[in-house]
Design brief:
This protein is α/β, with parallel strands linked by helices. The chain folds into 2 domains: 4-35 and 136-311, von Willebrand factor, type A domain (Rossmann fold, 3-Layer(aba) Sandwich); 43-130 and 317-346, no CATH class. The protein is 29% helix and 25% strand. Strands 10-9-8-11-12-13 form a 6-stranded mixed β-sheet, sandwiched between helices. A 4-stranded antiparallel β-sheet has the order 6-14-2-16, with no helix packed on it. It has a 4-stranded antiparallel β-sheet with strand order 5-4-15-17. The chain is globular.
Amino acid sequence: MFRQTRTYTFLRILAVLLLLQATMPRPSAQDEASHFRVNVVLVQLNVAVTDKNGNYVTGLRPDDFVITEDNIPEKIANFEEGDEWALRTPPPNQPGAVDATNAVAASNPAPTPEPAKAPDPPSDPSHMLAGTKLPGFGGANVFVLFDTSNYMYRGFVFAQDAIADFIRTMPEASKIAFYSYSRDLSRAATLTSDRFRVVRGVRNTVAGDDAALYNSLLLTVKDAAPLEGRKAIVVFSNGPDNASSVPPEDVAELAESTGSIIYIVSTRDAQSEPISSAAFERISRATGGKAYFARNWRQEKDAFASIRDDLTHLYTISYYPQANPNRGWRSIKVQLVGKNLSKYHIRTRDGYSLSQQAAVTTEAYVAPADSDEGSRPQ
């Protein structure tokens, strides 16, 4: 995917990020003192497993998965099933979710094991976590990116309603950020558990100016990149991009390389523009997400409900790559083992660029005592 675009160098993307953030406010010296940075080479996958009818398959274990990178077998370091498994909503034995544990019990009986324990870091220092224990994954970190350009004059309120409903109904364990964009990116609400604060940011948006979707999406991917666990960007766009300085291929490659899954909800206005609709499909597919084209406000709500359902069923799997001389694009393949599981469909990203993955800087934010934001990018 995007095979021709992988000739783009990491320096080009870095230069674009520096250009886009040249006018962004810089953190104070006190804020800088509250951060520490560790370079981590850890590959994280968000994996959706469905049956032939599109129902999500739950109850899978780490040893049900086989992961290879450039055909080299990898050992799972962390494994977590989505919020649905913990909440049992809907119950796994009900329509809409297939319990794989019951499906294969007759032919492959085994007790449910403890989650896979992270292996000792490899001897290569670039693969080490600088003595820091990798935390367990929690709820999803979700960034909502809303089109407030002049394309949005029609149906603006209906889009706000659909986004607000999506935010309110996300599992409590998830944290949500709300950004909006026209020519510039506005971070109305940074990553937080406070749903009221995020919805207030949605309601305070107004429409106007040109649309720089890919500029804003690239900056959002950069914000999400250092985070652990499931991280997703949900975009609502009502039209084509007419003001960006970066192509969609650069956005997709950075998102693939940093493990951010992108969902795009758009309208028939964007679907009627072939270049934009094709780009939306490619970006979402490359990252393991989906693109939706809604014809009315009901379909907008349905699209957000589908995204919420998908996020709560994702398996989050991570591994430290084995020794590999390839310093460029690395292909990833995820499979299920056993004849009873191989029939299921897997959706995830298909690789990453090592240069971009290794350059991601993990930032731990020390939040003020009166804040519940926890870890967030600056």
